[in-house]
Write a structure and sequence with these properties.
Blueprint: H1 12-25, H2 33-47, H3 50-66, H4 70-86, H5 90-107, H6 110-126, H7 130-145, H8 151-167, H9 171-188, H10 191-207, H11 211-227, H12 231-247, H13 251-268, H14 271-285, H15 288-295
Helix pairs in contact: 1-2, 2-3, 3-4, 4-5, 4-6, 5-6, 6-7, 6-8, 7-8, 8-9, 8-10, 9-10, 10-11, 10-12, 11-12, 12-13, 13-14
Length: about 300
């Protein structure tokens, strides 16, 4: 699942102060609170401070509603849905995305409608509702193609459509989407999308049994993610590299990447993924053949 907002680079101390200001402003200026929240959201996304992200967005959405700003309310509600999705609270995420979509439709905001549809499509795909996912995602991609000035949006749509195809087992169609997204990201120099799509393509190639090729995609993704200091995409790439090395029998090399990914996912609050990778490490260490195979490399 690749739901995200912009990639911010800013001072950590300033953002911590902004979070505190948002929480305190509700007591004396609720209608203006959303203006304080906006500068912090990109940083919270990049650092994956998911709980703080959800709190800030919820406060800001309510404040925007009180201020009579439906456009801002919808934006903050959409961001709230993203935070809930990353925290694996699908019901809350769907409720937030549907609320944002309803506001955007009422406002006639085509760009925002497409964004909300693609977010809903991803959640439905995660839940295994392929029909609902494809309906939302294909509609979102169709809308984005009418807006060539929003090239990055089309990349997001392609990667999410690729994810839905992968979830449904359509690996060839999934790879095609990711390859299109990689070309598009390189063309417009969108490094965040490039890192995501490279990691996603690596995942598909690994499922297809093309593990050596997958490993190279993951390594390219890691290089890009580190260059832009993106913690989440770094974790995705490290996990992929670790799993691919394990598949290739290079367990001793895999541990470094798997342990690093575990630490990152734990810091994000993604305990499910951290536990799964921990189980993989224990399995590898309990398998003498894997260790011997790694030593013979």
């Amino acid at each position: 699942m690749r739901i995200s907002v912009c990639n911010w680079q800013t001072n950590e101390t300033d953002v911590e102060r902004a979070i505190t200001a948002v929480q305190q402003a509700t007591a004396y200026d609720p209608a203006g609170t959303w203006q304080l929240a906006q500068p912090a959201l990109g940083w919270l996304d990049g650092r994956q401070r998911r709980d703080d992200w959800a709190v800030v967005c919820a406060i800001a959405a309510e404040a925007a509603h009180a201020a009579g700003r439906p456009d801002v309310e919808a934006s903050m509600t959409n961001n709230l849905g993203i935070a809930h999705a990353l925290r694996r609270d699908d019901d809350a995420a769907i409720a937030a995305f549907e609320r944002a979509l309803a506001i955007h439709i009422e406002e006639g905001a085509t760009l925002k409608i497409a964004q909300s549809l693609q977010n809903l499509g991803v959640i439905h795909s995660e839940r295994g509702d392929d029909a609902a996912a494809m309906a939302a995602l294909t509609r979102a991609l169709s809308l984005s193609e009418r807006m060539p000035e929003h090239a990055r949006l089309q990349l997001v749509m392609l990667t999410n459509l690729g994810w839905a195809h992968r979830q449904a087992g359509r690996l060839a169609e999934s790879a095609d989407c990711y390859e299109q997204a990689i070309r598009g990201a390189e063309e417009i120099k969108d490094h965040q999308s490039l890192a995501s799509s490279l990691a996603d393509l690596g995942g598909v190639r690994r499922l297809q049994g093309r593990v050596a090729e997958a490993l190279q995609h993951y390594k390219s993704a890691l290089t890009v993610a580190r260059e832009i200091d993106d913690a989440l995409r770094t974790a995705w790439a490290e996990e992929g590299i670790g799993r691919s090395l394990a598949d290739l029998g290079q367990s001793s090399e895999a541990y470094e990447y798997l342990y690093s990914a575990i630490a990152r996912y734990t810091s994000f609050g993604d305990v499910t993924t951290a536990i799964a990778l921990g189980s993989l490490v224990r399995e590898l260490r309990a398998d003498p053949e894997a260790i011997l195979g790694a030593d013979r490399e």
